[in-house]
Amino acid sequence: MKNKLQQIICCYIIFYALYSVSTRFVPTTVLWEGPAADILYKSIIIGGGILSLFCLYVMRNSRKLDIQAILLGVFILVLGVSSLLNYKYELTGNLLGLATFASQLILFYFLPKILTEDRLTRCLQFMAFFTSFFWNIGCAASLWQYIKNIHYTILNPEGHRIRQGIVDGRLFGLFSDPNFAAFTSLILILLLLFTIQKTSFFPLKVYSWASISINTCYIIMSNSRTIFIAAAGTILFTVVLITYRQYRAGEEAGLGRFFIQGTKRGLIALAAMIVVYSLIFFPLRQIGQMMEPDRAVNDMVREDVGADNITNNRSTIWKNYLALYKDKPLFGFSVRSALPYVTDKYPDSYLAKTQYVTHNGYLSLLVETGAVGFCVMGAFFLLVFLQSLKKLRQKETAGENYLFFSSLTVSILIFLMCFHDVFFTVNIETMLLYTAIGYIHCANKGSLAAPSA
To answer: CA-based, 20 to 30 A from 38: which of 124, 247, 256, 296?
Structure first.
């Protein structure tokens, strides 16, 4: 039974990833609009819920609960209390958000206890292959669209047609949002690099490098500053961690040498990233500017971009949500009540008029679960971090898998600084964050699933 469950979970993970990335791809979003989209979403939630129950059944004989598992249980309880306190606003949506969070958390966080390490890594490799195959088509088509029709247009909120090519600061292409699209490409690059490291099948290596090239080009041409920061932070973290592993494994290397080597390698890696960015971005942008026809000054309308608005309105959004948070500081507004609440109570406010979400995962956590939920989840991440430091001080214990999941976690946590709700939604980064944190915790505690006899 356990082997069959593992196979079903692997299939579900691939389906989950494909569904998630398809929601960021305009053609499939339009194709599945209406009942089809609702059926797909509910099948993800129901399927995850059923599988999470099976996972709990498989782990039923594991009596030992650690402090992290207790904290996550307390957090689910806090989220339930918050949902009940906000019953006047989106009670059904809040309960659905609670069920979504609980089922995904149980399934993905405890995945390293269900799947053996080898099967988990192979499952992620399959997911990387199938998902990147679909995503490569979108990236390649978007880049081709840029080359063939650099002045393609979209409708702005006022109903006017504006150009949204890279000349104007964004390559939307076939994606609904260039930031989410670029981050999807970034995590796929991490998964593909992991696949290259793990596989000996040469055609798969060639495919992975080709996919990495396509996704790198889209990331650069999306011109997303958030993804640039996330990529830089991930590269710097990974290089320093690799250097530290080498330092711990060597007898002769001193701590001072580690700092020198880590700093030097980190700066070289960041410089290389900037060089690659420049070699792709500026030539293509120059081509675009050469092809650009004459146009009026006000032909391009983007009020959220400029030297006086470097955060793209995010600072204004954050200030308004922090002001709103004061209305319910302890248990927050639950998953989906903040905007209905502000629309009802403060109809003339900035948030009521714009209906903007928080654009910050940590602020979302604070607003939706209040100080209680924020502190509980903060304590959870802090304990995992402290345990990771303890493990990294041991010699030759942080292997390739640990390095990969750590880098993946850092990448998503950086991304959360400018984008919202990874914790309570169905997204590929949600699945990967829970899985990565679960793996790191199990590796720290030595409780990864044992290989089958």
So the answer is: 124
Cα angle, residue 274 at apex, residues 270 and 280 outer, rounded to 5°: 145
β-strand partners of 163: 153
Q: CB under 8 Å to 323, separation ≥6 — which residues?
A: none
Question: Over pLDDT 90: what percentage of the chain?
Answer: 27
**Sign of the dihedral defined by the CA atoms of residues 408, 376, 384, 447, in that order:** negative
d(CA 324, CA 338): 8
Query: What SS3 string covers the chain?
Result: CHHHHHHHHHHHHHHHHHHHHHCCEHHHHHHCCCHHHHHHHHHHHHHHHHHHHHHHHHCCCCCCCCHHHHHHHHHHHHHHHHHHHCCCCCHHHHHHHHHHHHHHHHHHHCHHHHCEHHHHHHHHHHHHHHHHHHHHHHHHHHHHHHHHCCCCEEECCCCCEEECCHHHCCCCCCECCHHHHHHHHHHHHHHHHHHHHHCCCHHHHHHHHHHHHHHHHHHHHHCCHHHHHHHHHHHHHHHHHHHHHHHHHCCCCCHHHHHHHHHHHHHHHHHHHHHHHHHHHHHHHHHHHHHCCCCCHHHCCCCCCCCCCCCCCHHHHHHHHHHHHCCCCCCCCCCCCHHHHHHHHCCCCHHHHHCCCCCCHHHHHHHHHHHHHHHHHHHHHHHHHHHHHHHHCCCCCCCHHHHHHHHHHHHHHHHCCCCCCCCCCCCHHHHHHHHHHHHHHHHHHCCCECCCC
Place of tokens 């030992």: 64
- Alpha-carbon gap, residue 30 to 16, rounded angstroms: 19
Residue matched to tokens 């700092």 = 259
Q: What are the CB-based long-range contacts (under 8 Å, 24+) for 265-274?
A: 265/239, 265/240, 266/235, 266/236, 266/239, 266/240, 269/235, 269/236, 269/239, 270/232, 270/235, 270/236, 273/231, 273/232, 273/235
pLDDT digit string (tens) for 67-77? Answer: 888 999 999 99
Question: Does residue 89 contact residue 419 with C-beta atoms inside 8 Å?
Answer: no
**Look-up: residue for tokens 């209305």?**
327
| Residue 309 pLDDT | 53
What tokens does 61 get?
A: 């004989």
Dist. CA 388–CA 440, nearest whole Å: 7
Tens-digit pLDDT profile for residues 110-169: 999 888 888 999 999 999 999 999 999 999 988 887 777 655 565 555 556 656 666 556
